[in-house]
TrEMBL record:
This is FAD linked oxidase domain-containing protein. It comes from Metallosphaera cuprina (strain Ar-4). GO terms for molecular function: flavin adenine dinucleotide binding. Pfam families: FAD_binding_4. Gene3D superfamilies: 3.30.465.10.
Length: 288
């Protein structure tokens, strides 16, 4: 297995096309800390790590660690709107949602534009966010930054199903930074506020975290809290969670057949639309 650290789009495109011509499988990574891909050739963007912050925007190359952007943004009293701890390229490739996606959206939402090298050429198209490296390698992106809250307090409590909708309707009007519902043989809600409080709930500083392991989990399309409750009642998963504002819930179950009738895909894979685009952008099937 070869590893090549590219320095720009031209080198990435040239490397990708040569590999394709020679019938080699290619994986594109950042630092590799989050990737378990196996291929004939690994293309790393680790040397493409520059970024600049101007006003409420960061323009960053794919190999830039999110931690560096987050640190500089904080020094300017700004917030990078994701808890992801890898590189910019990994953030765009996974489009991972976190509880604060309630307020700021997924990476697709707060990304203004991005550039990606595909076998068909270089595209400036954010529609490929979330394709997990199967269509190409991200090289650069512009993302929004937000004013950093001076205080974040999360209120949490266990609820019976019959009370869930009523409490939801009450707290959603408080404009929460994060709104998370966990199912683990019962429902627990976590509501993060930058001001105000919720009586009758326990509280802690900061925002809630969720299970990040993909093993045994599926992304399931849900329209709202009601459809999440319906899903849980049907499947009775080992664990599941719903983030307000995100249309996909993460569900841990040992039997995929239990999700029949629900639009879903394995958390380690990608939505069906990505495979359709692959027949156009990588019909050589070079990228893995």
């Amino acid at each position: 297995m070869e590893i090549g650290k590219v320095i720009d789009e031209r080198e990435m495109l040239e490397t990708l096309r040569i590999a394709s011509k020679n019938g080699k499988k290619v994986a594109i990574i950042g630092t590799g800390n989050h990737s378990k891909k196996v291929a004939d050739l690994i293309i790393s963007t680790a040397r493409m790590s520059d970024f600049t912050i101007r006003d409420s925007e960061v323009i960053a190359q794919a190999g830039c660690p999110i931690s560096k952007i987050r640190e500089e943004a904080m020094s300017m009293d700004l917030l990078f709107p994701s808890l992801y701890d890898g590189t910019v390229g990994g953030l765009l490739a996974t489009n991972e949602a976190y509880p604060i996606s309630t307020a700021y959206g997924t990476p697709y939402s707060f990304t203004q534009w991005t550039r990606i090298v595909t076998n068909s050429g270089v595209l400036k198209w954010k529609g490929l966010i979330g394709s997990k490296g199967l269509l190409g390698g991200f090289t650069e992106a512009s993302m929004r930054l937000y004013p950093r809250p001076s205080r974040v307090e999360t209120f949490t409590t266990k609820l019976e199903e019959k009370d869930l909708i009523q409490v939801y309707n009450k707290v959603i009007n408080l404009n929460p930074l994060a709104f998370l519902i966990e199912y683990d043989n019962g429902f627990t809600i976590h509501v993060s506020l930058t001001e105000g409080k919720i009586d009758g709930m326990d509280s802690y500083e900061g925002v809630p975290l969720v299970e990040e392991s993909d093993k045994g989990s599926y992304m399931v399309k849900v329209d709202d809290i009601s459809s999440f409750i319906e899903l849980v009642n049907k499947v009775r998963p080992i664990y599941a969670y719903y983030i307000q504002g995100v249309k996909w819930s993460k569900v841990y179950t040992s039997e995929e057949s239990e999700l029949d009738g629900w639009e879903h895909f394995n958390s380690t894979e990608v939505p069906k639309v990505v495979w359709k685009l692959k027949t156009i952008l990588d019909h050589w099937n070079t990228l893995v």
